[in-house]
Design goal:
Order of helices and strands: EEHEEH
Number of helices: 2
CATH class: Alpha Beta
Strand order of the largest sheet: 1-2-4-3
Structural class: alpha+beta
Length: 91
């Protein structure tokens, strides 16, 4: 998946996800709210057929890039747990 960084400061990260509309950005921004240091987490898609999702993260003190990476790790763990439980339930 391609990521285009638009803004990268210590506590602010803004990036674009080409070819993505709502599913992945929504998942990321919702999971970001589990970190108490996150001040702003959101995304914007100007038009679902012609625009790419732009995600914006702002933190109080933590490095925004590190917060994003830990959020992605948390999403991966939840996905793995879901897959294990799903496979077990569907046997």
């Amino acid at each position: 998946m391609e990521i285009i960084v638009l803004e990268n400061e210590k506590n602010v990260l803004k990036f674009e996800l080409p070819g993505r509309s709502h599913t992945i950005p929504n998942l990321i921004t919702k999971e970001l709210w589990n970190d108490s240091d996150v001040e702003v987490s959101g995304y914007n898609v100007l038009h679902p057929q012609t625009s790419n999702a732009i995600i914006y993260i702002e933190t109080k003190k933590k490095d925004a890039k590190k917060v994003l990476l830990s959020t992605i790790d948390a999403i991966k763990k939840k996905n793995d747990e879901f897959m294990k439980k799903g496979k077990k339930s569907l046997k």
